[in-house]
Specification:
By secondary structure, this protein is an alpha/beta fold. It folds into 3 domains: 69 residues; 39 residues, no CATH class; 170 residues, von Willebrand factor, type A domain (Rossmann fold). 46% of the residues lie in helices and 13% in strands. Helix 13 links the parallel strand 8 and strand 9. Helix 1 packs across helix 10. The longest helix is centred in the N-terminal third of the chain and has 19 residues. The radius of gyration is 25 Å and the shape is elongated. This is Carbon monoxide oxidation accessory protein CoxE. It holds the Pfam family VWA_CoxE. InterPro entries: UCP010256, Uncharacterised_CoxE, VWF_A, vWFA_dom_sf.
Length: 371
């Protein structure tokens, strides 16, 4: 990591910008990044407006990417200190398609109630929309709604006990209390086993087939990290990347930009069996996954050996407390788990749930909390 005050090379700054765009939901591929570097080299690296136009022409795949590109460009190249902030000062007022904003010409309580009802209806509809189909304005609205998710780790009982108002009788404490009163009967002291949060491990698939859900999954992982101290986050694709430190930023936008700088294989291939083996060899078997709730976010498109994936899932099931698989296509009509990755993993999964909308993510939080 560069020391404070270190002058960065132009290519490093530009490539960091492309990673930030990818983390913000713009599908930036390696070819587009290379084209962006060539375009800025031809137009001149000292011309900010030329770099802006070069990026819009080479990095944006369609009109839906332009608004997010403008936000990330301004945050990245105008930031004066620290990581760039891409969150707007207020949530955009663009209405969700099909639900026009309430008319503001009228005055009085009825108009206010109608406006509040319309906003509530819009938010509720947005909660059930597939996040991969949202435009930039709708994604900005949805980003604010992630703060409503209650992501908490399940509790496990420990060997140590604590005083409690009910439970088993604590004979030694009760006897000592009676002796202090010279043998007179004393209040019965009861106790129960202490409880502490169980570790939660999140494995996020960042391959090309999951690119439309990457931003939402990072925001969900951020909710788990900031609300608990026993949460670990990894990304899986062509390689395994430990992402917990990047997720510790309190600001979700800063966390996502930091994740973009950390993960090297956005929108690549999927080798779940190989990356899961690396996780278990290096982290899981040594204690991180032992007794933990392991949540895998993936659509199951495995390009590697499905037999290897099945063996590693069986291995994971033996050491983890519970294995949850979240598939964005699980909640869609007509879906069948026929992909070779899902077919290989299903026998070793405790919970197979949907993960395509904010409402589905809320259900994921509930499944984890009661695991």
């Amino acid at each position: 990591m560069s020391a404070p005050g270190t002058v960065r090379q132009p290519d490093e700054v530009l490539l960091g910008f492309t990673r930030a765009l990818r983390a913000a939901g713009v599908p930036v591929t390696a070819d587009r990044s290379h084209g962006f570097l060539e375009a800025t080299a031809l137009l001149g690296l000292d011309d900010r407006s030329a770099a802006y136009r070069a990026g819009r022409a080479t990095l944006c795949a369609g009109p839906d990417d332009l608004d997010r590109y403008d936000q990330v460009f301004a945050a990245w190249f105008d930031a004066r200190s620290g990581l760039p902030r891409t969150r707007p000062a207020s949530i955009p007022s663009t209405p969700v398609a099909g639900f026009p904003e309430a008319e503001s010409s009228g005055e009085g309580a009825d108009g206010d109630e109608d406006a509040v009802r319309a906003a509530a209806t819009t938010s509720e509809v947005l909660r059930h929309r597939d996040v991969a189909t949202l435009d930039a304005a709708e994604r900005a609205r949805l980003a604010a709604l992630f703060a409503t998710l209650r992501a908490s780790a399940p509790l496990r009982r420990t060997a140590r006990r604590q005083r409690w108002h009910r439970g088993s009788l604590d004979a030694s404490r009760t006897l000592r209390a009676s002796m202090r009163r010279f043998g007179e009967p004393a209040e019965m002291v009861r106790r129960r086993r202490r409880r502490r949060p169980r570790r939660v491990v999140l494995l996020l698939d960042v391959s090309g087939s999951m690119s439309g859900y990457a931003d939402a999954l990072l925001r969900l992982a951020h909710r788990f990290v900031v609300t608990g101290d026993r949460v670990e986050v990894f990304t899986v694709g062509t390689r395994l990347t430990h992402l917990t430190r990047a997720m510790h930023h309190r600001d979700p936008e800063r966390a996502i930009v930091a994740a973009g700088d950390t993960v090297p294989d956005w929108s690549g291939g999927t080798r779940l069996g190989e990356t899961l083996k690396v996780f278990l060899d290096r982290w899981g078997a040594r204690g991180m996954a032992r007794g933990a709730v392991v949540v895998i976010f993936s659509d199951g498109w495995e390009r590697g050996d499905a037999g290897l994936l099945a063996a590693q899932m069986q291995r994971l099931g033996r050491i983890a407390h519970r294995v949850v698989w979240v598939n964005p296509h699980r909640g869609k009509a007509g879906y069948a788990p026929v992909q070779q990755g899902i077919a290989a993993a299903l026998p070793h999964i405790d919970d197979f749930v949907a993960g395509h909308s904010l409402a589905a993510f809320a259900e994921v939080c509930e499944v984890v909390a009661r695991a």
